[in-house]
Design a protein that fits this description.
Blueprint lengths: L9 H6 L5 H22 L6 E9 L4 E9 L9 H66 L5 H36 L5
Antiparallel strand pairs: 1-2
Helix pairs in contact: 2-3, 3-4
């Protein structure tokens, strides 16, 4: 719980943002829209229909073979509306992806700010405040033993030490929450 790691720079995190599920899903969506365009373009070429069979002619008591070929002429319907709609849907997906990327980058900037602040707080409490409070408590405890300080002064420094430890634990919790937020946004661990 007390282990903290150095945080990467904003640029390093921004380069890893493509792993975010909110952005990565648009790759599949774009592939589906491109496939829809291909499908609609294939619809403008008419299908060739071939048929055949046997027919019995009663008048002359004979059997004939029938063969048919059907090919619609696309004079008026070249499926342009459906093709245009599929192309607009692809353009819409590109814009939605950009929008999602902006939203994730904004959230990442906020999460990075929280992570940076939490890291600074944890480091300051661990390296400066906590050792100072501990040494003050040790000095007052020793002074109380030899009669230099009264009991209330010792309890006051002990309360201060406990408050600083509580603040340190809260700062560690905020640090780990911020790490989890950043890792969620980049889609992978910070390591």
């Amino acid at each position: 719980f007390e282990t903290t790691k150095p945080i990467p720079t904003t640029e390093q995190l921004a380069n890893r943002i493509s792993q975010n599920p909110d952005i990565a899903r648009w790759t599949v969506e774009m592939a589906q829209r491109r496939a829809a365009i291909k499908l609609e373009k294939s619809g403008r070429i008419p299908d060739l229909s071939i048929g055949g069979g046997m027919k019995h002619l009663n008048e002359i008591d004979d059997v004939g073979f029938i063969f048919g070929l059907s090919f619609p002429l696309p004079l008026f319907d070249r499926n342009q509306g459906a093709i245009r709609e599929a192309e607009y849907n692809l353009a819409k997906v590109f814009e939605e992806r950009k929008s999602a990327e902006v939203a994730v980058r904004t959230a990442l900037a906020a999460a990075y700010g929280a992570l940076s602040a939490a890291t600074t707080t944890v480091t300051a409490l661990k390296d400066e405040v906590l050792p100072g409070a501990q040494s003050a408590f040790d000095a007052v405890t020793e002074g109380y033993r030899i009669g230099k300080f009264d009991f209330l002064e010792m309890l006051d420094t002990q309360r201060t030490l406990f408050d600083v430890r509580g603040s340190y634990i809260n700062a560690l919790a905020e640090y780990h929450k911020a790490v989890a937020d950043v890792e969620r946004l980049i889609g992978e661990p910070l390591n």
